[in-house]
Amino acid sequence: MSQDNNIVFAEQNQKMKAAYQKAQDTFNYFWREMYWEAKRVVPAHDLALVKIPFQQMAEGDEQPTVEHMWISEIAFDGEHITGVLMNSPNLLTNVAEGDTVTRKVSEISDWMLSIDRKTYGGYTIQVLRSDMTEEARKQHDDAWGLDFGNPNNILVAYQQEENEENLIEHPMSKVMEQPAKDYFEANLDVVKAADENGVTRLHTETIAGNKIAVEILLELGADKNAKTNTGKTALDYATALNWEHIIPVLQ
């Protein structure tokens, strides 16, 4: 490999590492959107994927072989992401399409949503698109059938392009404020109940970044000091997921 090629490879590698970090830092927005998708009567998502690096160490190798692949059918408990591998590996033999896998947020390499064909996230894809010619970029986008937009202006939140305040609170959270209040007032048992894992509704709404629901629950007597079976309070989740608008409410 020539010196010039080495430089290009190193620069690309650094861009990808930065993309991995950005995906991890913004995963909270992915999960917030997944939370609200589950509440919609009519589904809005074209796709919702998380990319994970899988690895395998072969006998005699000094470094493991790594392959980044997408998982779908995503679940998240505030600490671990679980999904189903939707790719057939090209390089690895220790995983297969359809396997269920679990990883921490700090282990993912990307996430991507598409709503009305517009994409959110997709940081590693945008690294590749940023180096393409306009023609190649169009061919890439047409192959996906999606609008990836400007690779230098990556959206993370639903309707962010219409209102930057949607980075703080999801549009549906605002619309559902009164119905949520009516529901919790009529079902006070839900406010304080915990499931078999010690997870309360306050934990769930905090993980999803819903400040409005968190405030309603606290007003109705939810215990902000309640801990899950793993010892996590709602504040622990707000801090770990960097929900800065919720942290002061729970302190």
Please tell me about this protein's structure.
- This protein is an alpha+beta fold and 251 residues long.
- The protein is built from eleven helices and six strands.
- It has helices at residues 3-25, 27-39, 123-130, 134-144, 171-175, 177-186, 188-192, 201-207, 211-219, 234-240, 247-250, and strands spanning 45-56, 65-76, 80-85, 100-104, 110-115, 118-121.
- A six-stranded antiparallel β-sheet has the order 4-3-2-1-5-6.
- The protein is globular, with a radius of gyration of 20 Å.
- The N and C termini lie far apart (55 Å).
Which class of secondary structure composition applies to the elements? alpha+beta
How would you describe the oligomerization state of the chains in this entry?
Answer: single chain
Global mean pLDDT = 94
Tell me the strand order in the biggest sheet.
4-3-2-1-5-6
**What summary fits the major beta sheet?**
6 strands, antiparallel
How many DSSP H or I helices? Answer: 11
N- to C-terminal separation? Answer: 55 Å
SS elements, strand count: 6
Shape: globular
Task: Write a brief structural summary.
With 251 residues, the protein is α+β, with helices and mostly antiparallel strands. The chain contains 11 helices and 6 strands.
Sequence-ordered SSE layout with sheet pairings:
Blueprint: H1 3-25, H2 27-39, E1 45-56, E2 65-76, E3 80-85, E4 100-104, E5 110-115, E6 118-121, H3 123-130, H4 134-144, H5 171-175, H6 177-186, H7 188-192, H8 201-207, H9 211-219, H10 234-240, H11 247-250
Antiparallel strand pairs: 1-2, 1-5, 2-3, 3-4, 5-6
Helix pairs in contact: 6-9, 8-9, 8-10
